[in-house]
Amino acid sequence: MSALGRIVRSGVARKRVQTLVLTLTTMLAVTASVMAAGLVVASRAPFDHAFARQHGAHLTARFDGSRATPDQLAATAHAPGVTAAAGPFPVLTLRPFFGDNVDSEGPPLTVAGRPAPNGPVDDVDLVDGRWATAKGEIVIDADGPPFGVGHKVTFRQSPGRPTLTIVGRARSIGRSADAWVAPVQLTALTSHAPEYQMLYRFQHAGTNAEMTADRAAVTAAAPRGSLTGAGSYLTIRHAAQRETGTFVPFVVAYGVLALVMSVLTIGVVVNAAVAAATHRIGVLKSLGFTPSQVVTGYVGKALIPAAIGTGLGVVFGNLLAIPAMRQEGNAYQTGSRTVAPWIDVVVPALALAAVAVTALIPALRAGRLRAAEAIAIGRAPRPGRGRTVRRLLGRLPLARPLSLGLAAPFARPARSLAMGLALMLGTAAVAFGTGLALSLNGIQNGLDREESGAVIARTLPGPDDLSQAPPPGPGQGSGPQAPDAGPPHMPKPADPAAISRTIAAQQGTRRYFSTSQARVDVAGVTGGAQLVTYTGDASWATYQMVSGRWFHGTGEAVAPSGLLKATGTRVGDTLTLTNNGRTARVRIVGEILMLRNDGIDVLTDASSVAALDLGSVGGMTEFSIDLKPGTDAAGYARTLNQSLRAIGGSAEQHLQQGGGATVIAMDTLAGMLTVLLVTVAGLGVLNTVVLDTRERVHDLGVLKALGMAPRQVIGMIITTTGLVGLLFGAAGIPIGMALHSIVVPLMGSAAGSGVPAEDMNVYHLPLLTVLLFGGVLIAVAGTLLPAGWAARTRTSTALRTE
């Protein structure tokens, strides 16, 4: 081995702490960068990637089994433009009851009979468990009811009231069904001929016009009048892209933070390590090493541990990306993905290039020094640096360890500045992540107000009576896919007035109001808007306001951001609503947080639109019921449901689902990335303090000889980093707040809504106080180990060190 090789090897082995810190810093920086870059790339068109991977259906069609045979439907696979087809699969829409006591009633499920999850179209992604292959088994949609493998599902309206066991949870990218069973089980769930489902892929399916033509081709190929409903993948794609849009600003912000902080921290560690070796460089030059050999040797000493850390970072980045991608896939409802292979090449290359360049600059500077000058400078800071500050602080009534600790950063200002910048970005990441979590959870709570009250009653019949009606087309009711066909024929809704009297007479009722929906025409909105009319006092369960206020009197209304954008109106303007030639004018007094229907809704009191004669439109009326304190909601719902069934209505307990998948995913990812960035910042502090304490070991020995106790040594060192952490932490908080003020509105805009002020103004004085000391805590955490080492070093050993 050459002399240069021995120098590199001995330097790496001798500086074990620096080598370990550089390895860990590079590893965590690369880990954070791989995760962040992977998530940013995954946020680009995730639905399209998953749709292609799972051979998603462009069109999910449902046919009347009494008007078409399976062979006739299979023949539609040869319709013009069809490139692949799957089916026919028997399908039903049923109301499930979950649990051993079948007390938990779920929304209607579209249940398909499929022998296997894969096929030429719509490969169903099995998330948990296995596929249903026999009677008594069922697979539930992974984004559906929150019941896991092993739970029971009972279908009361089916012959024999069968109970099935959940054996798996799966996800269809095209939302073709809510649940799947074996074909033999599907046939046993009904006493009449089931409907059939066909799944198609087409040669041209990129626009609504092309999808309309494709549907017409399938309709022409099927028996006349057999098609009962069909759903286009474009509707699902639009919703998925809106979800993606909310993720992108958040992920990009963290990605930029991770990359900048990684490069900065690596630069701090490498630059400090090479600069600290100036004395040794002088010795090597005096032994005959040329400047180029010195530079090459010290760049090599930095690259060896950095290469090890980079390799480990790629491995851990991909491992940590697995749950992160799963969370992101759950939010997108597209399944999990992996880090793009090119990221595993580009990120390590950039990290090693950053290490090489950062090591090269101080190595070149030291290589140009004369040997005697390098030896003379050694590890000591330049004479006079920090002396004035020490003298001024010494005049203050402070303990000597504190004054020395406060003055220490001024002896190495460049190093202190670099460490402070790492702490500043770490604190910014904490402030941004904390504010983001508070805002997202506040927004989710606001969205949960779309259904209020402990119990929900409806004018529609209960599940047992509902079983007598023909089942809806694919995705109707609570199914996963909105069809192009109209609503199914349902029994006539109950009289809302009778429902209201029954609720008022029910023991335990505190207050309630009702809402009805109808489609009306609004100038400037193609296809009209959903009108929601309120009867009764709803002030206790209003939506979260983006701006303005809730309506109070006749002629006032509120609307989501989507409608205001579509009509070019704002709070204070007037809208004209039309129904069958009748008109009503309402003044918008508030903008609300609502995302359903793309926010194309108008909410007002029923008296404000009496002129529209909405009774001719029909539809369901829903009652939101608040209970008196101490009332058992489940028992109340059961009793009320029994009373309402007699008059054609139904009631059920309103169970809050908790945070949405998108919020959970964002909170999880924010937590993971924040921890990584804080750890990187802490390692930067650790490396800096290690270098400082080793450079000052002789000075520390003198101080200990003069009577400084070990605890005072620790206090002095902690004071040094604590001051830097406090100052730069205070500077990092506004950066985090600024990121929050930019990213959250961008996420809201991508979702098609404004963000309520109460969800933006989350930084209050108690939180800011905690965040202010966040940088101090990061600094102290990175200081404890080297400070303890310095305190334990014997005075005689320290005094012999030069």
What does this structure look like?
This protein has 802 residues and is α+β, with helices and mostly antiparallel strands. The chain is built from 24 helices and 22 strands. Strands 1, 2, 3, 4, 5, 6, 7, 8, 9, 10, 11 and 12 form a twelve-stranded mixed sheet that branches. A six-stranded mixed beta barrel has the order 14-15-20-17-19-18. Helix 2 (16-42) packs antiparallel against helix 10.
Give a quick precis of the structure:
This protein has 802 residues and is of the alpha+beta class.
Keywords summarizing the entry:
802 residues, alpha+beta, twelve-stranded mixed sheet, six-stranded mixed barrel
Write the layout of secondary structure elements.
Elements (H helix, E strand, L loop, with lengths): L2 H12 L1 H27 L3 H8 L5 E5 L6 H5 L7 E13 L2 E2 L5 E2 L3 E5 L11 E5 L7 E5 L10 E3 L8 E9 L7 E3 L1 H6 L6 E8 L5 H14 L5 E6 H43 L2 H9 L4 H42 L10 H25 L3 H7 L9 H8 L5 H8 L5 H35 L7 E4 L4 H4 L29 H10 L3 E14 L6 E7 L9 E4 L7 E5 H7 L6 E6 L2 E11 L8 E5 L15 E7 L5 H13 L4 E4 L7 H35 L1 H9 L4 H42 L5 H4 L4 H28 L2 H6 L2
Parallel strand pairs: 5-10, 7-9, 15-20, 17-19
Antiparallel strand pairs: 1-11, 1-12, 2-5, 2-11, 3-4, 3-8, 6-9, 7-10, 8-9, 13-21, 13-22, 14-15, 14-18, 14-21, 16-19, 17-20, 18-19
Helix pairs in contact: 1-9, 2-7, 2-9, 2-10, 2-19, 7-9, 7-10, 7-14, 7-19, 7-21, 8-11, 9-10, 9-19, 12-13, 13-21, 14-19, 14-21, 14-23, 19-23, 21-23
